[in-house]
Amino acid sequence: MNIDIDTINQIIASVFEEMLTMSTEFFDAGDAASDGERVVASIRISGGLEGIVVVEAPTETAQQIAETMFATDGSRISDEEVCDAVGEIVNMIGGNIKGLSDGVSQLSLPCVSRETVTPTAEIPLTSMADVLVSGLPLKVYWHHLAEDTAAV
């Protein structure tokens, strides 16, 4: 099953607008990598659907997501809670994508890290969405894994 960019965009909009009441606006930033500090979260889908979802949130975006998710201001949000919030976003997006599979699929636990450098490796991807969440930038990557690489 192939997941297209329109489907990814609908899932992203649903997660942010319906679950967090944060506005979304999609745009095309091209292949430009995010410079500076950011929180990156990924999750693996395996089984009937094989793929990886990655959410890349600059620090300010990640902070705003956490404040909204935990209904508090920035002075009360810990670094761990910011990472947890972005991890929950990738979990929700991944869960929605997993739900599109006809077969039985499993969702891994999210892997979340803070990064401060521009990535040097190319991310193999099937789709990439650039979105402004409440006016702040966010990238979501979807990489469909071919069946012959599913065991990797």
Describe this structure in words.
- The model is unreliable at 148-152 (pLDDT under 50).
- The chain has helices spanning 5-19, 59-69, 79-98; strands spanning 24-27, 38-47, 51-58, 105-107, 111-115, 127-133, 136-144.
- It has three helices and seven strands; from the N terminus they run αβββααββββ.
- Strands 1, 2, 3, 4, 5, 6 and 7 form a seven-stranded antiparallel β-sheet that branches.
- The protein has 152 residues and is an alpha+beta fold.
- The protein starts with a helix and ends in an 8-residue tail after the last strand.
Sheet with the most strands, sense and barrel status? 7 strands, antiparallel
Residue-averaged pLDDT = 87
- Low-confidence residue ranges: 148-152
Termini Cα gap = 19 Å
Radius of gyration: 15 Å
What percentage of the residues does DSSP assign to strands (E)? 25-35%
Give the beta-strand count. 7
Oligomer: single chain
The residue fraction in helices comes out at 25-40%
